[in-house]
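The following record pairs a protein chain with its ligand, arginine.
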Amino acid sequence: MSPMSQATNQSWGGRFSEPTDAFVARFTASVNFDQRLARQDIQGSIAHATMLARVGVLTEEERDAIINGLTDIQGEIERGEFNWSVPLEDVHMNIEARLTDKIGITGKKLHTGRSRNDQVATDIRLFMRDEIDVIEAELTRLRDGMIELAEREADTIMPGFTHLQTAQPVTFGHHLLAWQEMLARDHERLLDCRKRVNVMPLGSAALAGTTYPIDRHVTAELLGFDRPAENSLDAVSDRDFAIEFTSFASILLMHLSRMSEELVLWTSAQFNFIDLPDRFCTGSSIMPQKKNPDVPELVRGKTGRVYGHLMALLTLMKSQPLAYNKDNQEDKEPLFDAVDTVRDCLKAFADMVPAIEPKKESMYEAARRGFSTATDLADYLVRKGVAFRDAHEIVGLSVAYGLKTKKDLSEMTLEELQQFSDIIEQDVFEVLTLEGSVAARNHIGGTAPDQVRAAANRAREALAALKGAS
Ligand code: ARG
């Protein structure tokens, strides 16, 4: 031990002549947040030691001492007995120092042929891989529940909207499958991101590689990585995968916020389309009648913080010269928070969506009230030879009459309708009903109940195929 190492950091204090300023030590330390990577740090170290022994840099005894020591430390951390030290800066040096405490000088050999730069990049990728798998399971659960509800509600009629004005009748199942399509794309983006996460920086050492005869294929295989990263300079400094994950997360949360917004609208007395079970809602401390849709509101609100993390990470990486820079330590907090937020929001939705209780009569009434079959009447006239623009005009006049007399198109008598066109006959009522309107949109991607059932089946198959692929 060098004489200075009492006063300066033990791991790198050799060339320093005065101790680190107390504030600077706190300012530069990351242990308060990167201790979350402890499990992956130990996992990476065990693989590194195993590889070093295989290529003859460590003896088998040294390797075993290191692995046993690290395994004990893992237990200490899990039991909450580990003493995290801010002067030891980060998770890596905390664990290494404890290992040396426990097994003596052999502990100091663990860091042979690596650097904290490739170590931390490896730890975050292992962490992200674990989290992506948990997030994927929640996303799958949500999609499953949504497809099932869509199938159950394939015949349930509601108004479809453009500009939030009643447009044409759709089925509730069709609406739910629209949500499901958004999530299907998110799911693909997540799995695509995982491919680029699962590449191993370890062995890049500080930036240029190492002089020891390491075998990176061995470590990659032990850690379940697809391959070692190609270029050491890139591998220690690349954080694209963090940006890709937060991009995925931002788009997913954008989708969840759209769904949330609709759930909030639909639970209002003004829409009255659905009920959410009490367990997903809270009351008001002052207004006894209130039942607030807090869960979707909060998901809608949390979207903003995830967008913020994406912006933070993009800006963090902007203009960074190769290779590792201390800036990169700032990747962890946004990434951790994005992971936690996505997990929680997906869990909330996966629990809540199957519990949505549609108020079918109320949805039906709303679709009936808004002249939602006006396009169907126009299409009917066109089928009888009227030009579309003329048909549009005829229907416009019928709607104006309906507004004045407070009657929907389907509630008018044949004589009333014939005031606007004598081409209209008794068979018009088949297209003016809501059931007739949705059933007529009977092609792939359309809202007809049979199409919704077929689409639900295809969605289920696509989900199963994706699960099989990952
Ligand atoms: N705590 C650091 C981080 O999170 C670990 C790598 C530090 N490397 C270094 N040379 N200072 O990025």
